[in-house]
Amino acid sequence: MKTKHTLPQPFKGIVPPMITPLKDETNLDIPGLERLINHIIEGGVHGLFILGTTGESTSLSYALRHELVARTCEIVDGRVPVLVGITDTAAIESLRLADTAEKKGASAVVAAPPYYFNLGQPELIEYYEYLVERLSLPLFLYNMPSHTKIIIEPDTVKTLSKYKGIVGLKDSSANNAYFNNVMNKMKGRSDFSLFVGPEEIMAETVLLGAHGGVNGGANMFPELYVKLFEAAEKGDVLTVKSLHGIVMEISSKLYSLGNFGSSYLKGIKAALNIMGICSDYMASPLHRFREAEREKIANNLEEIKSKMLNLKH
Amino acid sequence: MKTKHTLPQPFKGIVPPMITPLKDETNLDIPGLERLINHIIEGGVHGLFILGTTGESTSLSYALRHELVARTCEIVDGRVPVLVGITDTAAIESLRLADTAEKKGASAVVAAPPYYFNLGQPELIEYYEYLVERLSLPLFLYNMPSHTKIIIEPDTVKTLSKYKGIVGLKDSSANNAYFNNVMNKMKGRSDFSLFVGPEEIMAETVLLGAHGGVNGGANMFPELYVKLFEAAEKGDVLTVKSLHGIVMEISSKLYSLGNFGSSYLKGIKAALNIMGICSDYMASPLHRFREAEREKIANNLEEIKSKMLNLKH
Amino acid sequence: MKTKHTLPQPFKGIVPPMITPLKDETNLDIPGLERLINHIIEGGVHGLFILGTTGESTSLSYALRHELVARTCEIVDGRVPVLVGITDTAAIESLRLADTAEKKGASAVVAAPPYYFNLGQPELIEYYEYLVERLSLPLFLYNMPSHTKIIIEPDTVKTLSKYKGIVGLKDSSANNAYFNNVMNKMKGRSDFSLFVGPEEIMAETVLLGAHGGVNGGANMFPELYVKLFEAAEKGDVLTVKSLHGIVMEISSKLYSLGNFGSSYLKGIKAALNIMGICSDYMASPLHRFREAEREKIANNLEEIKSKMLNLKH
Amino acid sequence: MKTKHTLPQPFKGIVPPMITPLKDETNLDIPGLERLINHIIEGGVHGLFILGTTGESTSLSYALRHELVARTCEIVDGRVPVLVGITDTAAIESLRLADTAEKKGASAVVAAPPYYFNLGQPELIEYYEYLVERLSLPLFLYNMPSHTKIIIEPDTVKTLSKYKGIVGLKDSSANNAYFNNVMNKMKGRSDFSLFVGPEEIMAETVLLGAHGGVNGGANMFPELYVKLFEAAEKGDVLTVKSLHGIVMEISSKLYSLGNFGSSYLKGIKAALNIMGICSDYMASPLHRFREAEREKIANNLEEIKSKMLNLKH
């Protein structure tokens, strides 16, 4: 293990939420994992986030989560900072995972609110205080109301940002009024990083000052998202519009098959499998696409690739 | 009555959702209405939207709604296009209001989904088809899921956009992944206008190609929103950031007192009253701010005005 | 017009939420209305509730609502108390309708919370206080969170029950923990009537002390619901189980076709039309069943009728 | 370990969802656990359910969950059937816990839907099929929409009930229209047990044919709930009303302090501690009551006890 990265301040850029390549319910697809990590890092990303929603974290056994942390840190080998999702309903398991993350050389941990009991904001603040007092790695808050049933209110973000160990927020609400409200409350705090999850909104948030994106599509096309981020950071609106247009095509063509919330995740795994990178196995309760959807993904993938080529020429 | 405006294609810019100046539960504050309309139009806006959520439409008696349409068109006198909210649970009352709008010289009508029964998308499509077949004025869809309990899905917008009489969408969801998805589906359709409601997200959506904002703050500071729109349309990111910063201060300082969803609306009415423009009376079930909040609004208003002045120098 | 009924204390029994027989979007089916009212009253019900959710109140024009009040009171002619739904987003229109109700001889009015703006409990209390101070007829609260987006909390019911003019609650939440909580808070208050809307839960609530049901199925089979109520009031569990079984069959066979929340309402209107009582026209945004569903309703209706016959022998 | 109970068909009665006595975040309060189990069993209950919502299952480390299964089965020692909650977002961990349950002599397992990803009904059916094919113990479905964000639709219950290994449903929705709908669909299936969670609705559901209650209050007063169940099963409405009245007092006086959803759980733990039975420690993210609430609980507990005494005399 290389010495771990200390996160720059502010930490910024594209930090793909890595899917978890699985052989079956209890085993990692190790060669796939290696190919995927290398593929992503070679795309120029600024970090790697494992065990998020896109990583199917909550569907994996605990043993597998710990194993994934170890293997990922090993393969990454210090090339980029590794962020580890420790979201759990049991704080004690979050801390155990954070401990492994620290030992294996990860740079930070990320925690969404506990997602079983319905909490109020005061309980949420106490919860994050409980974590931060016991963590050695820096902590990112993770706002994910569609899955956790609770919003980390802007005032709660502000309150928690006084802790040195809490260094940023990943917001996956897709509610930009909320996100801009948080940005406004945190302005001037270059030590607190603000990322959005949904790639459909990354460009505009970075144009207005956000620090980056934790965008699923960067599993497939890391370079595209890096370029879009760079253009947005520079305020190069023309390039942003053109690259953002491709991101919207990816969203529209790869993430919208089927009826349920998981079509995004199924689409990415199918595409990565078609691209020859890793297995598309999904842990229960989700299931990979069947042949019909897979074929559509394959066709749409070709279309997207040719659009990306056109762009280059 | 001047000959009414035919909407340009695409219709774009700042179209303030006008608050309704009220003397009491059943009477308009007519001098206030006149001052307010003149104040807004002199700010350079591109249209005026009455009887929306910000206009407390659903709290007004039917007689008052019809009266407001007549008075507004009279006072506007053809200076800008007038858009009239006809949102209702009873389609027949929507049509009656549209009829008044047409007769008095309004340029378009705007309808959110009926908000009592829980509908599915097919029922929603049938509903808008029912309206559009009976309307003589062009119709804007109005997505307002927090109040209507239903999202106008992007595919529904696409389906409905084939009707010549349906000419745009006002989206107040604040969900930019949704909005960008709609923009992507409608790209190339310069005859279909895409506006957002929440002013906190207007700048970024226009930067990426949206047509404008229906922003409550433009009741108070129309010029600010017009300038922000123009900067965003030009892709002038620096100016956008600076003006957007003031909009976020307005949102943070004027719209966030009190506990409930209506603090935005109470804040605008209080501010307009403090500015000497019109009454702050609110129709039941809402109530204007009491003295304590009103004082805070007055102080915060001063702060915002001085920031705006600094900007000019 | 007969002298109106003063409601007994406590008011109890079966008070069918009458569907509104419509010829088309703007006209009542008058002969159907007469047949329906007579059919219901001859079933032995204890009151009649018009302009509720089942009555499509929010889909009707204001003129039609007022006309329905007048016509119904005329046809009922003092045989049972008439309760009039005045639920509206505009308090002023609620009061106007209450005025008509009072003039035409109705006995009480019923109001769900305003259903457009998102209110808090304090605003809800102020709203009902506003109404009750201006009403001459007694008022029933109407809890309908699936449509209004707000629960009338048990403590709010308790607070409002101190007003002499507020005489009861109709709860359509189907949440019996909520309802039992309200019953517990109001115990000993024989002057405050507690009714439930969903017929699927009427029997058990009356067994435990509730005052009655506002059950849609009583449009079709008033006698069944009256007998079930009487058995439940007496604590005759065997009869309750047997009659409740038929009510559940009605619910299962007539209210569950199609995908959306309105299948209950479509089912009742179809059945009444098949029974030769009145038109099944529904006001926009809802639509009556098409032929396929109608045939199923016809078949299921036969099945239910034969079960009811078996019961009698 | 005694030979485990095979569940009778139908399984019925009072099956308390046991709270988990904790010394601290990672250790059981073993003497408290022993006192609690004996207290509950001596009250005449028909089974014991551990690791449910009331048992704070999702807040406990995995090691602790496995330990609790072992310890409980040991202490119960075959006196009543033990049901083990295996609800988890990772199916593999559910299966591991079910394996421990089987080895230690539990009689059945109970699983709510996975509660992180948003699933549709087809995915939910596949999920339960996945489980049931791999389980050796019988499985109860557990409907808990407020925590899991998904309803197990009545048709889904019906579909899943064809599997021999799925033997019942615990419904904690408090929606009795839903529950009666399920009862109606499952009538005649004496091999499929229907329980409700909320004690506020247990009496009425058993009066109409449900099999029993999984009621938190039975941690404190097992005998009360057993007597109420027996009276309801016999159709003894007078006794039901009287005992149900006390249950409603317990709900009103012990479960309603504080603002959030967990006041029920905090109330039970505080009361058990005051009664000298076990620790009131709660695992993160929840916290036990502070002194002020605890005093109120102590006072209210005295009141309730004296009501129960009056009843006996």
Automatic annotation (TrEMBL), chains A, B, C, D:
Pfam families: DHDPS. SUPFAM superfamilies: Aldolase. The keyword Lyase applies. Belongs to the DapA family. It comes from Echinicola arenosa. PROSITE patterns: DHDPS_2. It comes from the Bacteria. Gene3D superfamilies: Aldolase class I. The lineage of its organism: Bacteria, Pseudomonadati, Bacteroidota, Cytophagia, Cytophagales. This is Dihydrodipicolinate synthase family protein.
